[in-house]
Design a protein that fits this description.
Layout: H1 8-23, H2 35-60, H3 68-77, E1 89-96, E2 101-102, E3 107-110, E4 114-118, E5 122-123, E6 129-136, E7 150-153, E8 160-171, H4 179-191, H5 199-207, E9 214-219, E10 226-232, H6 261-271, E11 279-283, E12 286-295, H7 303-320, E13 326-327, H8 329-337, E14 345-348, E15 353-354, E16 360-368
Length: about 375
C-alpha cells in the first residue's frame, strides 16, 4: 500500500502528543513559545526533511519517477541517451570582387537570430559570387534559419560586400531533449524485450536523433527489403516541421543514393543500429494542405477566436495526421467544440481527408472564416 507521508504540521503535533503522553515525565501541557514548543518545531522540521529525502530516494528508484542524472542512468541501462542540443549549419552567399577570400572562422550574423563561423576559406569565382559554409556558434532550434534570410559579416572583409543571403537553409539545430520526452523513450525501451528490427525499433532510433519529433515506418515501401522511414521535425526547424534535405539512405550504404540534410542525419544514425540486410530510406512526408471554410460564427467571429480555431486545427493535424493516413471530421469537430464557441459551421472539408499516396500527409492549409 502507498506510504502516507506526514506533513510538517502532523510531525509537530505527533511530537507534542508524545511529550504530553508520558515520554517526558511530568509534562502535561506545552505552550506555543515554551522551550519544549520550540524543540517540537525544530524536531518536526528535521523529521520532515528526512522524509523529503527518503521520498526523493524512492522516486529515483524507478524510471517512471526518476529525474535528472538518475533518469539518464536508467536510460543508459537500455542504451537510451538523452538527445543533446545541436548547432545548425548552412551556407551564405555574398557578392565579392573575383578572387576575394573569406577566411575560415570568420564570424557572420545570420538571420538576426545569432552568429556563426565559416567552416572553411572560400574564394569568389569569376562571376563575383562567394558561397561559404557556416556553422552556428550556439546550439538550439533557433539556429534553423530559412532560405533567403539576410546575413551580415561581423567584420569587413576586403573585396566582399558586408550583406549576404542564406542560400542553403540552416538545418540540424535542436534544443536539448526535455525530461518528459526523454522519459517516454526510456519507458518505451523497458516495455520492449530488445531491438531486433521491428517497426517500433526504427521509430525509436529515429526519435533519438536531435530534432526529430515524429516518425513512421513503411515496410517494403520501395520494394522488398526496403524500410521507408518518414520523419518530422516540428520544434522550430523553420520549414513547417518538415525535414530539410533530400530523401535517401545513409552515406555508408551504397545500395541507394545518399540522403542529404536532416534525412542524412537520421539515416546515418540508424545505419549503425539496423539489421545489416535492411535498406533504410529516410524521407520527409509530402505536405498535402487541407483548406477549411468555417462560417456562421456570427458575433464569435473575432480575431481571438480565429486565432484559437487556427491553433486548435493545427494541433488536430499534428496529432492525427500521418503519411498516407486519414483525418476524420470527428477529430476537428471535437477540437472546435472544446473552444465553446456560441455557433459555427464547418462548410469544408465535407468529409474525411486522406493522403493521396503513402507519402502524402494532410496538413492544415488556409482557413476561410466567411462572414
Amino acid at each position: 500500500m502507498p506510504f502516507n507521508r506526514p506533513t510538517l504540521t502532523e510531525h509537530r503535533n505527533q511530537i507534542l502528543r508524545d511529550m504530553q503522553g508520558g515520554t517526558l515525565p511530568g509534562v502535561t501541557n506545552v505552550t506555543r513559545f515554551s522551550v519544549l514548543g520550540v524543540f517540537a518545531k525544530v524536531w518536526a522540521g528535521m523529521a520532515y526533511l528526512h522524509d523529503s529525502f527518503l521520498d526523493w530516494i524512492a522516486r529515483q528508484g524507478v524510471p517512471w519517477t526518476a529525474t535528472d542524472e538518475n533518469l539518464e542512468g536508467w536510460g543508459n541501462l537500455k542504451g537510451v541517451v538523452r538527445k543533446a542540443p545541436s548547432a545548425a549549419s548552412g551556407a551564405v552567399t555574398f557578392q565579392a570582387v573575383a578572387g576575394s577570400t573569406i577566411p575560415a572562422d570568420t564570424t557572420i550574423s545570420v538571420g538576426g537570430v545569432g552568429t556563426g563561423q565559416t567552416t572553411e576559406a572560400v574564394t569568389a569565382d569569376s562571376s563575383g559570387r562567394l558561397t561559404v559554409p557556416v556553422a552556428m556558434s550556439t546550439t538550439g532550434a533557433a539556429g534553423n534559419v530559412p532560405l533567403g534570410s539576410l546575413a551580415e559579416l561581423s567584420s569587413p572583409v576586403l573585396g566582399v560586400q558586408s550583406s549576404g543571403q542564406v542560400t542553403a537553409a540552416f538545418t540540424g539545430g535542436a534544443d536539448a531533449e526535455d525530461e518528459e520526452s526523454f522519459r517516454s523513450r526510456v519507458l518505451a525501451a523497458y516495455r520492449t524485450a530488445g531491438r531486433n528490427g521491428r517497426a517500433q525499433d526504427y521509430i525509436d532510433w529515429a526519435l533519438s536523433v536531435p530534432g526529430v519529433t515524429r516518425a513512421w515506418v513503411n515496410p517494403d515501401g520501395f520494394g522488398a527489403g526496403t524500410v521507408v522511414l518518414y520523419v518530422m521535425m516540428e520544434d522550430g526547424n523553420g520549414n513547417g516541421g518538415f525535414p530539410v534535405g533530400e530523401n535517401g539512405a545513409a552515406g555508408a550504404d551504397h545500395r541507394y543514393p545518399a540522403a542529404t540534410g536532416d534525412q542524412l542525419r537520421v539515416a546515418d544514425l540508424i545505419y549503425e543500429e539496423q539489421p545489416v540486410t535492411a535498406l533504410v530510406i529516410v524521407c520527409g512526408p509530402i505536405p498535402q494542405p487541407v483548406d477549411f471554410m468555417i462560417s456562421g460564427l456570427g458575433q464569435a467571429n473575432t480575431a481571438a477566436n480565429r486565432a484559437a480555431i487556427t491553433t486548435s486545427l493545427s494541433d488536430v493535424f499534428r496529432r492525427a495526421s500521418r503519411p498516407g493516413g486519414t483525418v476524420y471530421p470527428s477529430a476537428w469537430n471535437a477540437a472546435l467544440d472544446a473552444l465553446n464557441l456560441s455557433q459555427y459551421s464547418v462548410v469544408a472539408p465535407t468529409g474525411a481527408v486522406s493522403g493521396k499516396t503513402v507519402g502524402h500527409m494532410p496538413i492544415l492549409g488556409n482557413i476561410d472564416f466567411g462572414n
